[in-house]
Amino acid sequence: MRFTDVSGVPPCPGQSSSPGSRRPSILQRMSVLVAASLFAGLLAAGPGAAPSAAADVICNVQFNETTSTQGFVHPGVGLTASTLQNVRQQVAAGAEPWKSYFDAMTSSSAASLSIKSANESATDPSKPAATAFNSQSFNSRFIKDGLAAYTQATLYSITGNETYRANAMHIIRIWSQMDPAQYTYFTDAHIHTGIPLNRMVSAAEVLRYSSCTNETVPWTDADTQAFTTNLITPVIETFQHDQNHFMNQHNYPLMGTMAGYIFTDNRARYDEAVEWFTVNSTATDQGFNGSVSRLFRLMTKNDATGQPLDQPVVQHLEMGRDQAHGGGDITNATIISRMLLAQNTKVDPVAGTVSSAANAVGPYDFLNDRILAAADYFWRFMQGYDTPWVPAAYAISPDGTIRDTYNHISNSYRGRYTTASFWDLYYYYTYVRGVDLSQKAPYFNEAFSKRMPSNFYYGGSLNRAWDNVDGGGDFWLYAPASAAGSSLPVPQKSPTNLDIEDRYTALSGTSRKGTDGTTGYVSLEASTSGTKIAFLTGSTAKKTVGLRIRTNGTALMRLTFGLDRTIVLPDTGGAWTYVTLNLVNDEGIADLLNIEVTGDGTTVDVDTLNINAGAELSPPEFTAVTDGQRIVGYTGAALDVDLSAKDPVATDTITYSAAGLPPGAELNPATGHLTWTPAAASSPTVTVWVSDGTTTTARRITLDIAADRSGALSKAQQGFDSQAIYVSATLDAFNAAKAAAAAGASGDDAGYLKQLQSLVAATSGLALVSPRSPIDQSLNYPGILATSTAGTSAFKLVDGDDQSGTSYPQAQNLSHTFDFGPDFRVSANKFGFASNIFADRLANSAVFGSNDSQNWTRLTPGVTAFTQDYQTLDVDPSLRSSQFRYIRVQLLQPQPDVLYGIVRNLFEMNEFHILGDRHEIGNQLKTVSIGSPQAIAGKIQLGDTVKLTMVAKKPLASVSATIQGKSVAATSADGINWSAEAVMSGVPMGQVGISVGFTNTDGSAGPTSYSTTDGSTLMLAGSADHAINVPKLATVTASDKQWPGNGLGADQVGNLLFDGNGDTFGDLNTASGSWYKIDFGPTATVRLDEILLLPRASAATRANGTVVQGSADGTTWVDLISPVSGATANKWIDIKPTSAAAAQHYRYVRLFNATAWSGNLSEVQFYGDVAYPDSYLDAKAADTSTSTQGSAYLYNKETTRIRGALTAPNADRTLLLNQFLAAGALLKPLSDLYPQIAIPRTAVTASSVAFGNTATAADNGWRAFDGDPATSPDTTSASGWVQVDLGTEAPVILGAVKYLPRAGNVARGNGAQIQGSNDGTNFTTLATISNATAAQWYTLPVQTTTAYRYLRYYTPAGFANIAELKFYAKAVDKTLLEVMIGQGTAQRGGDWTGASFADLQRALDTGQSVNTDVSATQAAVDSAAKAIDSAIAALVPRTTGKPRP
Predict the structure, then answer these.
(1) d(CA 577, CA 554)
(2) Phi, psi dihedrals of residue 673, rounded to the nearest 5°
(3) pLDDT of amino acid 1442
(4) CA distance 678 to 639
């Protein structure tokens, strides 16, 4: 055992440096001062870090470097005592590269001195918040704390600040309290626990074998026991110990297990892990074996054909998948190799087993430097160089059968540096082995020279390599002392202006780096053969980019990889300017961007790629010319061509320039007009450009000059094919332009030239009905689709690139649908397909056609085969002439994958070709739309009304329609705008189907449309008669409050699911196992016959796994349905329970999901049966005290009828309950009768000036009545008021108040009092505001019979905050009288005896007189109404002569 002073700094005063103390030397004391000065500025490092406090102790860290009885070196989980000693010394000395990387590390939030554990309890920080390790969401805490502990322990070792040690110990002790019995494997746990376990064990290893002399936070044996028992062992055994994971999924857990084995001195498991890392000879599948020998494979044959190779080659196998995983593989290999190197582990050079033999080798030397060879191969491809690929088996059965191969190297993530952090490999070979990597691994060596800085910008955002969840950013810790003074990465100057010269590869032609003062650039020669470079790691999602360039002539710049676009470059005369590019459809700037320039020897200098050009640059745009446009003329005719442009910034001055102008031609530099009178036939190409001084836009035009007018007319039609079939609208435009040009042939030159140019434009605008792909003459359909579930990825389906296509999240129910719009149909003879590397995701698919998107016809009898090769399916011969608006590719029966034989239920395709034709059908309906005033997020129920609206392209004679099978006549006032309606009764449930036909004015019938043009749809489900009205019948409680914790409470957030608004949704503060409980009360139970769920649109798949449960006691639950699957955005899920449990009634219903769904549902509807006693209605009866007398009378009459109907045998009690609840709509508030009181501005004041003295007391009060909801009174004290003085002549009896709470301070209105006074001093409280929850209008009834001069809004603690107030005066309620008059006048005299009817007539006469009397009192009105009611009751039928019962 020996003690090592890692710091190189003597102990703090009073501490000893080793087993025996000694007086520090002058040199050592100087070292202390230097180190203390340096580290004092680092203690506050990291976002949120506090400055060094007095409690921070800087001590002399000592390491107890030991070798255990099992032969393990400690500390030795990668970081050894000597490694840390070197880092500390280099950082203290300010040596590079350590200093810069250290500075970058300290900017991480994980470096904060005030760091906390992500899993500590809020109530007791010494305890974990949770002890169950069972989900990906919980693992995010482990990931965060793994980095934090590692960072803090590393900083402690380097700086000696004991606060870092205490922080790291705290985090580790939190995780040492996990419950081993509560570990449960979750999806991909083996992947995502490897790095955090490695990091946390590395931290524990450092802390365990380090201390200050008088350590305040020592590592104890109890720490070792708890950390091992409660974290290391269960993580390894539950998540990681398995040798059969796929490729890099094999190495992620190895990083964790190997660290754990070193810490626990587990020699047997460690040796096993070493062999799993090197060879893994007993892995079940040697195709995806992730060991060094199989992942970085020596290829001896073509695995697809069996053909032997002339020369074996090393190939990185997972590069056939993608380069993010490819780079991660090598990073993982270096992290594992660090541990082997720290342990001085050597292995058999072939078998890879731990060995002490003379020929044993280290991890990097294994298999003749196999890891380095893979790294060199990786960077060859990543930098843009052509890289050969041999088809390689990635799935091999135990008997040697090859199940599938990677047939090409993947372009995914090519060029991205950010996921490849294995630069300690460079330090090892260069400084430890002394190898010249420019010779041994030239591509890796070149990549090192272009590496990213530790803190780097990517996609416009700042990233930190140290924080990378996949590790690798700590490579600099392993640089040996001999690397001192070695190069650093070039720092990035801007997050969005990316310097091309920092990270490019010269691929062909002549290019070089150059500098112009402080500006670096790449200079390219635009020769006829071209110069090409690849720019790396410039990926952006932005659709507008700019390149800063300068030239000495014109040239063309072609950008490829992720796009294929050409930019015309102007002659900038040696001045710098930007050129911009607007990307369309699926185009994008990827991690690799090929830049190629061609020309006649022009020098093109390229400085930066601006990925924020859309926001930073405002390029002028030509308004009348496009690139490649032809200007047709003829000899002797003076051309005046408008080449003008418009700049988005009105104040910018733009100038025009040109190159290649023919003799005699001139371009006005101020207006952009080109003038020329050609003397002979010619076709010169001119480059013209416009600049605003910052950005330049260039175009090429051809001046196509004929000898005479006839020749010019022919040139103007160049490109027209008389045999082609064009879209009628474009052909009509062409014929019109052609006729106009022919008619004007004898006119003046200026007029004829304009007509020729119109014809050129019309010719260019011709659109083929069936555009063809140059690859196989299939339909080039992406640009002619109306819509597609593939979105812009549709363009990737016809590009001939089997590496690009759709991704599985785009698919809907394992299918893709292509809509060719209402004007076209498609027929096909066959379809072509290509899968990605996962052939199971396309295998067993067929193609269907439809004209309404609901009823589908299968077109291909066959299904796609299980192959990566391009394949075709024939269309049924009887259907080859059939035409369809919609084409759908449907995966019928998902197949097991080749890796594990698991059915993944994923659908993807990389090519989809339609070998057929498109047809124009003569549709004259411009738009067709469907809707309903009762719809909730596109869902209606029986009894609702559906409306179709149609707009025609031209007047039509008639339009006929069917809605869900009901024939309805459409009406129109102008022949253009049409509508049709139908009530949904007696029709089938489901998607509401439509058909719309029309007759032209000439009597001919048009084609029938079966779909809307705007995508609008309606779903018919459930009957209003048996809807279960949850808001009125039940309380909804959620398992947690609304996310993120400061919104609605658990007792409120669930109501969002039943609010009838598809735009709101439940979103709970906890994810997994969340629920909503619906309680129908102690006297009611429900049976659910139909359940409708609307997923949250932005997170629809979270609804998958949801079950609806029933319970009698709210504790024991039974599932009523199977878990939801196939949830899709904006689509209701209609479920009809069929289980025996669902046939029962329950008091409680619960929506539950065990997955991380966060309660994400937008709407829920229940239909079924409600069981309740008759007395149940008493609690559901509405309060009529604030309703008009007439509406209360009608309400009571209706509810009495319903109560009587309940007693009938076999009464439909759910229907009657719904009618009882619906009767509430009869009630009208009294306040609707009351006139608003006019409030003069001069009558208003407040209790004080406005807060901040921004308004006088009068103006402050007026803000409550100014009609502006954005203003509010705001008094200087919480107890404040707004007062109105109506004057001595105008006191009122207040009947109601309407109020709008102040937005942002709604709660301040609750508790506010409405008061009245007649002396301005003594006030009576008339009503109190409560339960205001939103900034919306509320009505507050006031019960008083006293008239008041002064009205006041008073808040005991709300600063008089209110956005708006409206006061209403009480008025006489004549509504009951009006109802009685209506009922009385409805009686017929012939039905009753003369005397009784005469009594009624007298009562009616009196009532009508009172009703029209504006001065009638409430007593008079009530008396008249009662008299009519009595008279009606006393009517005697003529047939019986007795009063009616």
Answers:
(1) 13
(2) -85, 130
(3) 63
(4) 8
